[in-house]
Amino acid sequence: EGIEIIGEKAFADNETIVTMILPNSIKIIEDEAFSDCIMLQKINLPQNINYIGKSAFANCVKLIKVELPQNIDTINKSTFSRCQSLSDVILNDNIKIIDDLAFYKCKKLKNINIKYGIAYIGELAFYMCNSLQSVNIPETVTFLGNSSFSSSGVIFAEIGCKSTERDIFSYCKKLKEIVFCEGVEKIGANFAYDCSNLVNVKF
Predict the structure, then answer these.
(1) In whole angstroms, what is the distance from residue 34 CA to residue 11 CA?
(2) In 3D, which of 52, 45, 50 has the Cα closest to residue 29?
(3) Is the CA virtual torsion 59, 60, 65, 70 positive or negative?
């Protein structure tokens, strides 16, 4: 107890840590603090944490579950990129931004609850999330970045935001149905390009 900050690359490139138990006093996890901890399977994130830096857990290939503290409103760039075993992510009600590459190539991520209130989903945020099955983009999203769900395993998508950038679901070979809610004004270029199993589109 008493430690408030875990500095940049503090435990990066460690090949032996399996479990990390953080004290409740932790408030800040800086950039790449745990990146490339290739054996890390479990870490608790105490509720006092209000900032998690870029690539903080990038390439933690054995990390299984993450529950984000209530004070976190941004998932920064590449925070969980290439966490190939990450299957369970619990977002809090205060998340506003899911930045570029946040869950890039999280191949076992099955479900993500993009809650009402989220405003920004960055480029390649869920690229190649092969196990992801269903996506609901609420109307509160004002920016849906290029290739945000491209090459993922999404089967069903519901779109409520006014506009999208390009290649949102391109190369999603399992995608079967897309529903566009009332209020959608722009569908970006290559939105569902080469989605060979897409059979139902509803406006």
Answers:
(1) 5
(2) 52
(3) negative
